[in-house]
Amino acid sequence: MMKEHINFNTVAKSHKKLYKSGKTWMAATLMTVGLAGGAMLAGTTTANADEVTPVQSAGTIQANQQATDPELANAQSDAQKQQSTIDSANAQLKDQQNQLSEAQGQQGSAQQELDQAKQAQQAATQNDPAVKQAQADVNQAQQQVDNQQQVVNDAQTAVNNDSQNIQSATSAVSQASQAVDQARQTATDAINQAAAQQANEAQNKIDQLENQGKAQASQNLNNQINNVSGQVTDTQNDVNNTNSKISDLQGQVKDLQDQEKNTQTDPNIKTVPNGVIDYSKSLLENVSRNNLWAPADEQANNNGNIVEQNIYVTPDNNKGNFDGVNPNHGVNTSLSQYDPYYTTKFDGVNGQTGMTDSQKQELAILMMNQINHARMDRGLKPFTMSEQKYNQAQVRASQHSAQILSHDDNDIMTAFGRDQYECLAYIPFNGTTNMLSLLSDADSTLSNMLNADASSDWGHRENFLEDTGDLNYDAAFGFHLTDDGQYYVLTFDYDGPARNNTPNMMDRIAQYQAMGPITGDSHVVDNSAKINDLNNQITNLQNTLASQKSHLNDLQSQLQNLQAQKANVQFDLNQLTSDQQAEYNNAKDTLNTVNDWKQGQLSNLDSNSNVQGALNKLSSAKNNLESAKQTQSEDEAKLQQAKDGLASLNQVLATKQSALDNAEQKANASANQAVKDAQKKLDTINGKISDLQNAIATTKSTISNAQAQLDKDNQKIADIKNGQKPAKPDTGKDEGNKGTTTPTDPSKDDNKGSETTNPTNPAKPDDGKKDDNQGTTPVEPSKPSDGDKGNVTPTDPNKDDNKGSETTNPTTPTNPTTPAQPDTGNASISGQAGHKPATSGNGSEVSDNNATKPTIVLPTTGKESGSAVSDAQGQYINVVSKDSVASQGSQSGIQAPATPVTTNVSFGTKEGTMMTREEYKAQQAKLPQTSDSNNEKNIAIAGLGILAATTFTTMFGVAKKRHN
User: What confidence tens digit (pLDDT) does each residue in 572-581 have?
Assistant: First the structure.
């Protein structure tokens, strides 16, 4: 960033209001700040770091801009603080590295001293007579220990060998025991084998005859059970049919009675979309006569009717894919206008007994009508359904093989007299209310066989869609309610054209249509004759039902008894013929004789010669094992005795070794101390090297953090000068992470950690008021304290202490006059350069043109500028060497030093973020303090004097310039 040079004449003209009546106010203020800054220099310990050249120095603050832009003043202050931290840390790093190099040189020397001390220690030990004698005693004792150790080793070897012998003997016992077991097993197998053949033959004959007897008894019971079970089924069907008939007749009586209650309108007539329906007639008749069919074209939109006369069939080239279905073909039956269709009053179905015979015919016609329309859509001839074929289909549906969905050829031949094309399935029935609901369930079953038949290789689909050429094949649906009442067994059979002259049931649709539509005309209803006839039928059926139930109960009791007998069939000799009984008794006798012989042989198994030989070998092996264990016990006693002797000799050796150690200790006592001293010295140097390396790492980190923050501050300055202000300007108030405020007590700076001397009591301002934001009225500074604060009287201030700055001898300032109340206009002082001294025409002159004065940098306060920076981030002072300030001749100006060196400590940064004040203080506390010499303290004191002299010089210069 380029440093700016400001023309002093321009500044003086634009800011002359600042000096209109307060000749000495500014001088007094600068005097106070100078004293505080000098004290801070004297009390702050410098932290040095690697020489890292900062990317940019803090920029010059323009006087006219700073007065109106507190944001810029704060940014420049922050940048100068970061640059100060970098410069200070660079100097400290250089000092640390020098100390590290020096310590590393000392390390080699200390190591050499340690090696020499160890050599002297070894020589003193080797030449001592007492040590030599003690060593001879130790050697003799060691030899005795070694000899005894060999005795122990030999004894241990004997014990180890005993263990191996015992293991071998144990193995021999185990093998002999196994041989005994094997001999016994061999003898047992021979006995069993000898008896097994005869015993098995006898047992097989016994089992055979017993099974024959039980099988004959079970067969007799099965025949009886099947007979009675058939009677139970037939009687139960009779009871169900009678109940169904009674229920149907009672329903008809109630309907007739309901009709008589209203002689004006027929209560059976209900209005539905596109017409009416009559509850007294079947679903098929209502739909056929009033044309309440849904569209025959499955791709057409719905016409308001709900009874289908066709069924959707998926394409042959994409079977099972319903993408071609028209979603608008069906109607929303949940609408209230369709409620009359869904009631038991409309062709209702008995939930217990199922469909009547007429309802079965009706459902068969409705389903065949849908199949025929699907066939005609594909150009195939429709099926006929003769009454004979229909009746045969009902027989087929009632057969057991149909109920388990088995295509039994015998049953098919029994029902139809010839083989058939056949489809078998179930129609759900539980919960069905009327024929319309049952037709819907049947349609789902048909659709599955047509469109979801891949598991059957589409055989059902092919049967329904068989190409019969020019012939109309005779087909029929059969229905039978399962015993649990949950499903209807559905059969579909055909084998060719009709072979009889019975009527085609499919003609009923046309016959109904010929009868004309059903209307809802009013008429008077008299059903008394019908009701009487129905009641007579009900009475007769109820009598029949009572007789049927009684017979059913008898049959069920008989069936239960037969089933209990079958479940517990036991063998009885009487079940066999006389010849079989004699054969059975002979087999029993043979089996008993064989078992007795076998038991006697097994009881005397050890008398077998092979078993006896094995037992003798086992006894010998056990004796050998006991002998081996006795030998082991003796050898273990010898081993323990040898170990005890070894322990005693080891104690003697330890005593001799202790005497040797004492002799060596006496011989090299002085040499030992020399080794310890040398080692301690080396350890101290190594510790110092480690500390310095850690301190260097910390200092480098501090430089890196400060440099990162400096880059951000300089960028912020550039943005502000270019008119790019941040979104939220810094108000300068102390919020925990802002800069510090100017302390009200000039004798104490809590934010910097340095100590200043106590000033004398200031003169009272002429307005009698004190402004804490502007500091106290400056007076002549007192001598810095040289007590326990770490400050000393400055030595030659011109001495260069490798700090990169140069000071001059301060001149003694004169006492300033009491300042007038300051002007609160917009004037401010440049943040980079101070005033050059000039001759005053209205007061005393203090000027030293032969020496360049240090530059004082002061940010404006809220009282001076009236801006929002009254709580700025703190005062700072740049002490500039005399070579860095160029002489301006007679023209006074304000100029930024080439390389300002700041003595304040600015806030550091974390990686990529701003540190809070507390974080920065913690970091500065950890900064290694490797240089705190008296020379630095002396320079700090000298700086205090220079600042005081400069302050007074500047003060009189200001007093004179205010009239220019």
Answer: 878 788 888 8
- Quickly state the pLDDT bin for 668 (edges 50, 70, 90): confident
Q: Are 947 and 858 in contact (CB under 8 A)?
A: no
Residue 85 in contact with residue 701, Cβ under 8 Å? no
From 855, 920, 746, select the one nearest 33 (Cα to Cα).
746
Phi-psi region of 723 (alpha: psi -120 to 50; beta: other; left: phi over 0): left
DSSP 61-120: PPHHHHTT-HHHHHHHHHHHHHHHHHHHHHHHHHHHHHHHHHHHHHHHHHHHHHHHHHHH
Cα 720 from Cα 681, distance rounded (Å): 58
pLDDT of amino acid 571: 83
Tell whether the model's pLDDT for residue 265 goes beyond 80: no
Give dist(CA 34, CA 877) in Å, integer: 8
- The dihedral through the CA atoms of 694, 699, 705, 708 has a sign that is negative
862 Cβ contact list (under 8 Å, min separation 6): 773, 868, 869, 870, 871
Euclidean distance between CA atoms 678 and 134, whole angstroms: 29
Q: Where are the alpha helices (DSSP H) in 722-841?
A: none
E strand or H helix that includes residue 677: helix 669-721
Q: Are 847 and 839 in contact (CB under 8 A)?
A: yes
Evaluate if residue 119 carries a pLDDT over 70: yes
Q: What is the pLDDT of residue 727?
A: 53
Under DSSP, the state recorded for 799 is -
Q: pLDDT class for 450, splitting at 50, 70, 90?
A: very high
CB atoms within 10 A of CB 271: 11
- pTM for this model (two decimals): 0.35
